[in-house]
Amino acid sequence: MEMSNQAIPKLLELAAHSLLSNEASAIPSLEEFTVDLFPPLFTAAFAKGHKKALTALVQAWPFPFLRLGSLIVQWPNQENVQAVLDGLEAFPTHRACLRRSELRVLDLTLDFEQVQRKGVSEALAKFPFWLPSTVKAQIPQAMARRKPGEDVRKGPKQPWEPVELHIDLFLRGPFKLDTFLSSLLTKVEQSGGFLRLCCRKLHIEEMPFNSLIGILKALELNFIQELEVFDWFRALSEQRLFATQLGRICTLHSLKLAYYHWSFSPDGEGSSSYFLSQLSKLSHLRKLHLSYSYLSGNLQQVLSCLQAPLHALEIRSCTLLDTDINYLSQSLHATSLKKLDLSGNNLSYMVPGPLDTLLGKISGTLQHLDLNHCRLKDTHLNAILPALCCCSQLSSLGLSDNPISKAGLLSLLEHTAGLMELKRVLYPIPIECCVYLHGLSWGPVNKGKLCQVQAEMQKLLQTVQRADMQWNPPLPSPLPVRLVQLD
């Protein structure tokens, strides 16, 4: 009787559990195992918390790649991960198995979709420094083609090769370095180059500056693709040191900076000039997000230093002027932008004029547009409608917290119904349903009137045969008071 393909993995899993029931005898036998037994044996050891077995398995791992993300989500246990890291020793003095490890990449990143399906459990909260990744790590092609025991480097085989630790870090204050992360950084520092800490996504906020620089120095900067820093750098020395580190991240694809203290000077000698000189080194930068930073009249200085056109630009609450919008519409970025977010800037006096001109310039590529709380009224919306209707690739539009009437919203829906790619619209609560103060919705919302507006929108969507479009008002704010955008 032939064994089914589904039965083979089940038998391997049962064999793994059987071996681990006598951990002391299983570990010395690792060098006799076939490579097919290692994955189910490792999974079983991780699930049951066999720490000694995990350490030994890593030291004898017959493959170049080991990903822990799915196991961490399913069985979140720091001690298990620590046992795996304990197996990463450059020159172990005592080994339970003489089999040489082929491991070159240990991937600790989490899969965002898997986390969403499982839900964020209390146990997962033990790993606050892992940011669920929406980008799945790929095995390098050279590693994917490599067989166990095969050395891809030319020349004689070295006794030890470096191991990359892939991790996404989310560090948020009030900052106190996690014990586990602290020990990991110490292990990397003391490995003498054997362990390389590779972070694709790095998010830092409210961290002491020395700790931030220490983290950056511990990482392989050429591996970072997405960097988010939400903090103040007031001291000139701090700004220059951070800029120096930033300029070394040659592979950076996305940069987010919030609350950055820009210091422009007419002669170009300000601290921001040095920052921009380092920013110009980031030839792979395609996404730039700046928020809550005073940039009035200086957007040209920031964007003109970039070597290549941006695909995504978010400049939120930066008190932009019409000269900034004028420059953007004439820059090399205008014909490449897929995402533009100007939320939190007062754009009311730029229509008609700079804003509709900009929308016309970027209409060929734009897919996502956010103009939330920009003080736009019906007259402004009518002025930008012709340019907006030319954005044939637009798929999402955000207009929340703009004092627009019900009639203005229905007109917008009717005019944009021809944009077949437009599926999601976040519209503001109409002025008939709430009070607006300083351009932001304020006070209680008349839910009865809002429901009537929603019903009219649904009816109009059916009339124009666009049931695939989702028009939604913003969710109610959990805070009784909102920040007011300064003039």
From TrEMBL:
- InterPro entries under this entry? LRR_dom_sf, LRRC14/PRAME, PRAME
The alphabetized list of GO BP terms reads: negative regulation of apoptotic process; negative regulation of cell differentiation; negative regulation of DNA-templated transcription; positive regulation of cell population proliferation
Which keywords does the record carry? Leucine-rich repeat, Repeat
SUPFAM superfamilies for this protein: RNI-like
Q: Does the keyword Repeat apply?
A: yes
Any Gene Ontology CC annotation: cytoplasm
The record's comment on protein family reads:
Belongs to the PRAME family.
Name-wise, this protein is PRAME family member 20/21-like
